[in-house]
Write a structure and sequence with these properties.
By secondary structure, the chain is mainly β. It contains four helices and 42 strands. The two termini are about 35 Å apart.
Length: about 625
C-alpha cells in the first residue's frame, strides 16, 4: 500500500477525532436523570379502608406511592366532627398517620380533610383536595354542602374561616354547642363540608379565635344563613374538553358525576358592634400634658379628678380627643401642676366586665414626667433669647380643589380664637378684595379649625394673619401668616353620573381608589348618584344599602337575626377624563355577588397552582458564548 496514502489516512482520522472531541467539549452537560416528576402522590392503601364502617381504632394510616410531606397539618388538616383534643398528624415516609386522641362517637362518620397539604417530598407536587372518611357505625354518610364566604363589608374572599353545621335548630346552639361537622374556607373563600347525614341544618361561619367551635366571644367574626338547608344530590353529566395540545381540541366527552346540593351557599362575615373597653395606658410625655389611651373608641371624654393637695383652678385642664377617639390628651392650665414631677388623678370611666357589660370603673393614676433635660444652646453676651412661636400648621396647597377646605391646626390649645384673627382676600384683576368665609372648629381635633367658603373655579385667594393675634394657653403667640392658593379650573375636572335601576332604598355610593379605599361618597337620589369635580383617574365603586339611614355600614347581629347591610361592587371601573361628563348604568344585582369585586383591588387574591415546567432534556447543558471551548480545557 502506498505509504503516502497511509499517512494521509492517519492524518484524516486524527482530524476527525479532534473535531469530535472539540464538539464534545463545547456541548458538555451534566447527567439529568431523565424527566422530572410532575405527578402528585397517588393513594395505594390505608388502614382502615376508605369509607370503612364499624371502625374501632383510633389511628388512621394512609399509604402513597412515594415519600410525602404534610404542610402545616395543624392548620390545613381538618378532622370532623371537631376534636376537643387535637389529633397528632404526621408524615412518616410514604404514609400519612393520624392519631385521634378523642374517644370516637358511636354511629358517626368521620372525615379527615387534608385540603392541599399533602405533597411529594422532592418536587412538592400537591395532591389537591384529598379527604378520607370512615364510620364507627354501619353507614357512611355521604352528602355534601358547599359555597363561598365573603367579608360582608368589602366582599373580600376570606380564607381560613371555620364553616360549621348544626342540626340542633335552637338559637342557642351556635353559642353553646360545638359544631357537628366543620370545614374551612380556602384561599378563594370557598368551602365544602363532606360526609353529612340526611337532615336539615343551620350553616355558620366563624373566625374561631379560641378554637372551641362555638360563637362565645364578641370579638369573633361570624356569619349565618337565614334559612335551613337540607342536603341532597342528583346524578347528572357535564362536557369535558380533551386537548391535543395547548391550542388544539382533541374531543369533547360526556362525564357522569354526582352533584351535591346546595352548592351555592353564600355567607357574609362580619363582627358585631361590640368591643371590650378598657384603659390601656396613661403617660405624661411633656410637662403640660398627659394622655389616657383606650383599646376602643370612646363616646365621651372621662373627667379626671385631682388628688393633689395644692389648690388649682377649677378648670385645670383642656381635653382633646385623639388617635381616632381612642385617646384623650389633657392639657394642664395651671402652672402649679405642670411644674410638678408627679400628678395624681382619679379617673372615672366605663370598663367591660367579665360578662362584656360596661360598668363604672375608677382608677388612681400617677402621671410621672419622664423627659430628658433639654440642652440649651449657648448665646453670645447680649444676644436676646429667641422667640418660640405658637406652632400653626396651615394646609392650603397652592393649587387647591374646589371641594376642599383650608385647615389650621395648632400645637397647643388656643385662647378665645375668632375668625377675625384671619383675613381672606380674593384676587380681582391685580387687586385684592376681602371676602367672607366660614370658620369652623374641627369636631375630631380640639386644636384644629377649618376655613371654608363657596370657592369659585380658577380664582386666587390670599389668607393672612397678623403676628401676636392668636395666643396659646401657655402664653405663646403666632408668627405672621401670609399664603396664597388658586382653585383649580372647571375643565381640570370630570363629572360622573351613575344610573342605579332598582335601588329604591336609602343608599350611598363610595368611589374607591386602586387600594380599595374610599375617596368620595355621595347619596343615591332619584335612582342615581352624581359625583361632580372628580380628578381625572380610574375609579372603582361600591354601593351600601343604608337600611337604618345612619350614613354608615352596619355589621350583622346574630341575636337580632340581622344580616349585615348589603354591599355591592361595580364589577369594572369608571374612567373619568378631564373636562368630560361620564354617564353609566349599574344594575347592582346583575353580576353574582361572588364575582363582583374586581380582581385588581381584591387583597386576598387566590393562589393559583402552577405546575413546574422543565426542559429536562437541555437542563444542565453548558455553553460559552463566542467560544466553543470550556475553560480549562486544552482545545
Amino acid at each position: 500500500m502506498n505509504p503516502q496514502f497511509i499517512r494521509n489516512s492517519i492524518l484524516a482520522l486524527i482530524g476527525i477525532f479532534l473535531l469530535v472531541v472539540m464538539y464534545s467539549c463545547a456541548n458538555m452537560a451534566s447527567p439529568n436523570g431523565g424527566p422530572y416528576d410532575e405527578k402528585p402522590p397517588r393513594f395505594i392503601a390505608s388502614n382502615p379502608l376508605p369509607n370503612q364502617t364499624n371502625f374501632k381504632g383510633n389511628k388512621v394510616e394512609i399509604e402513597f406511592d412515594e415519600l410525602i410531606q404534610i404542610e402545616n397539618p395543624m392548620e390545613n388538616v381538618i378532622v370532623t366532627p371537631p376534636q376537643r383534643m387535637l389529633p397528632v398528624i404526621q408524615a412518616r415516609g410514604r404514609k400519612a398517620v393520624v392519631e385521634l386522641n378523642d374517644t370516637l362517637k358511636p354511629n358517626t362518620t368521620y372525615t379527615i380533610d387534608f385540603t392541599n397539604s399533602i405533597a411529594d417530598n422532592n418536587e412538592k407536587n400537591v395532591f389537591e383536595n384529598f379527604s378520607f372518611a370512615f364510620s364507627t357505625g354501619n353507614v357512611i354518610d355521604s352528602l355534601e354542602v358547599s359555597g363561598t364566604l365573603l367579608n360582608a363589608e368589602n366582599l373580600e374572599p376570606m380564607p381560613g374561616i371555620t364553616i360549621g353545621l348544626h342540626s340542633n335548630q335552637a338559637d342557642t346552639a351556635f353559642r353553646k354547642l360545638p359544631f357537628e361537622r366543620i370545614s374551612r374556607t380556602n384561599d378563594k373563600g370557598k368551602f365544602t363540608i363532606r360526609n353529612i347525614a340526611t337532615g336539615s341544618y343551620h350553616i355558620f361561619g366563624l373566625n374561631d379565635i379560641n378554637r372551641d367551635y362555638r360563637f362565645d366571644q364578641p370579638g369573633e367574626e361570624m356569619a349565618f344563613a337565614d334559612s335551613l338547608y337540607t342536603p341532597t344530590f342528583q346524578f347528572t353529566s357535564r362536557n369535558d374538553t380533551v386537548w391535543k395540545d395547548s391550542i388544539t381540541v382533541d374531543s369533547i366527552k360526556v362525564v357522569n358525576y354526582t352533584r351535591f346540593m346546595p352548592d351555592d351557599v353564600l355567607l357574609l362575615l362580619s363582627k358585631e358592634k361590640f368591643e371590650r373597653q378598657y384603659l390601656t395606658k396613661s403617660e405624661r410625655t411633656q410637662d403640660n400634658r398627659f394622655t389616657i389611651r383606650f383599646n376602643a373608641q370612646i363616646d365621651s371624654i372621662p373627667a379626671p379628678r385631682l388628688l393633689q393637695a395644692e389648690a388649682v383652678q377649677d378648670k385645670w385642664y383642656v381635653a382633646q380627643k385623639a388617635e381616632e377617639n381612642k385617646a384623650v390628651h389633657y392639657w394642664l392650665t395651671d402652672s402649679l401642676l405642670w411644674k410638678q414631677d408627679t400628678i395624681r388623678v382619679a379617673l372615672d370611666y366605663l370598663k367591660s366586665d367579665s360578662l362584656n357589660v360596661l360598668r363604672p370603673q375608677t382608677d388612681t393614676l400617677q402621671m410621672v414626667l419622664r423627659k430628658r433635660p433639654e440642652v440649651k444652646k449657648k448665646r453670645k453676651k447680649g444676644e436676646p433669647e429667641p422667640i418660640v412661636f405658637l406652632g400653626m400648621n396651615v394646609d392650603a396647597p397652592s393649587s387647591m380643589d374646589v371641594f376642599d377646605t383650608v385647615s389650621v391646626v395648632f400645637d397647643e390649645p388656643v385662647l378665645n380664637i375668632k375668625k377675625e384673627a384671619f383675613y381672606l382676600d380674593r384676587k380681582v384683576d391685580t387687586l385684592w378684595q376681602e371676602v367672607d368665609f366660614n370658620f369652623i372648629p374641627d369636631s375630631t381635633n380640639a386644636l384644629g379649625f377649618f376655613i371654608d367658603r363657596d370657592w369659585k373655579y380658577g380664582e386666587t385667594y390670599r389668607l393672612e394673619a397678623d403676628s401676636a393675634t392668636i395666643y396659646s394657653l401657655y402664653g405663646k403667640w403666632n408668627n405672621v401668616l401670609s399664603t396664597q392658593f388658586t382653585i383649580k379650573k372647571q375643565d381640570d375636572y370630570g363629572n360622573l353620573y351613575i344610573n342605579l335601576p332598582g335601588v329604591d332604598t336609602t343608599a350611598f355610593v363610595q368611589l374607591l381608589n386602586a387600594s380599595d379605599q374610599p375617596v368620595r361618597k355621595a347619596p343615591v337620589r332619584e335612582g342615581g348618584v352624581l359625583f361632580m369635580d372628580l380628578k381625572p383617574d380610574k375609579y372603582y365603586a361600591r354601593i351600601i344599602l343604608d337600611l337604618n339611614n345612619n350614613d354608615e355600614w352596619d355589621p350583622g347581629n346574630f341575636a337580632e337575626k340581622r344580616q349585615p347591610e348589603p354591599v355591592y361592587y361595580y364589577p369594572g371601573f369608571f374612567t373619568v377624563m378631564q373636562n368630560f361628563d361620564v354617564e353609566e348604568t349599574w344594575d347592582v344585582t346583575a353580576t353574582p355577588l361572588i364575582r363582583q369585586k374586581p380582581l385588581e383591588i381584591t387583597k386576598n387574591k387566590p393562589k393559583e397552582a402552577t405546575k413546574k415546567k422543565r426542559d429536562y432534556k437541555n437542563e444542565g447543558r453548558q455553553s460559552s458564548s463566542g467560544n466553543n471551548s470550556m475553560p480549562g480545557m486544552p482545545f
